[in-house]
Design goal:
The chain is mainly α and 281 residues long. 32% of the residues lie in helices and 2% in strands. A hairpin with a 5-residue loop joins β1 (127-129) and β2 (135-138).
Amino acid sequence: MGRSVRQKRKGRSSRPVIKQSNSRKRPLNPTGNAIIAENWNKDETLTQNYRRLGLMNRLKLPSGGVERLGADAVSERTSANPKASELSRHTDPFKIDNSSYDLSTNGTSKGARVGSKTTSAISEVRVERDADGRIVRVINDAAPIHNPLNDPLNDLEESEDDEEDNGKVYEEWGGFADETKPGKKNKAGANLSFAQTPVVDALERMANQPVGPKQPRYQSSAERDWLQNLVDYYGSAEPNDDMLARMARDRRRNAFQRTANDLRRRLAVFRSKGGAVSRSS
């Protein structure tokens, strides 16, 4: 049976056949790290695999919500990966807590109203007023300062007169102490703060392995012949800055337009391998 008219028309058409990619549904096959590839479960998603291994697949907060699991699964996930559980419980530090204020009393706190069932008591303070009768400052403020934004610098705003009256002696600040981050190891090599998964321990042992000596860059015979031509023409295997600038502008012998710094690095390797001027120009 011959080809149909529709098939012939499709073959003559310049529009390509649209193929829907199904790459998002393909199982992931990690090949970057042998430890992760050995413990990878193809039946789970990337986020589920990283959470089970004690890793984080992204540093930002999860967008679109967090996967809701049972109580036992949540406790198991929290014990296995504390870092991911801390990210899921994101709290806004700039949120003002209005639970202790009543909007019906024009913002008056519940502790200041008479008859409210609270442990805070009403106290008297001395205030300083200006000529119009407005309160300028509180002289003896025993109550805590209202700090809805939880600003840590709010407690440090004290005048010099209050420091002299109270007679407080402050120690000199010596900088931040070196604190060990969660999941890190001390100098003795012991785990700190929480128990890690075996995969994380294996990855840290791999990362702490000493790195071998740095190998010099290999130069091919063609590159050495090109550098030898430059050195023979300009008459020096260790040129100065002016000569390197002229080498960089030489479009005949420097066809690939290597920069002066690039030529300096290549000539340093050329000299370390015994390169020198072989003939005069």
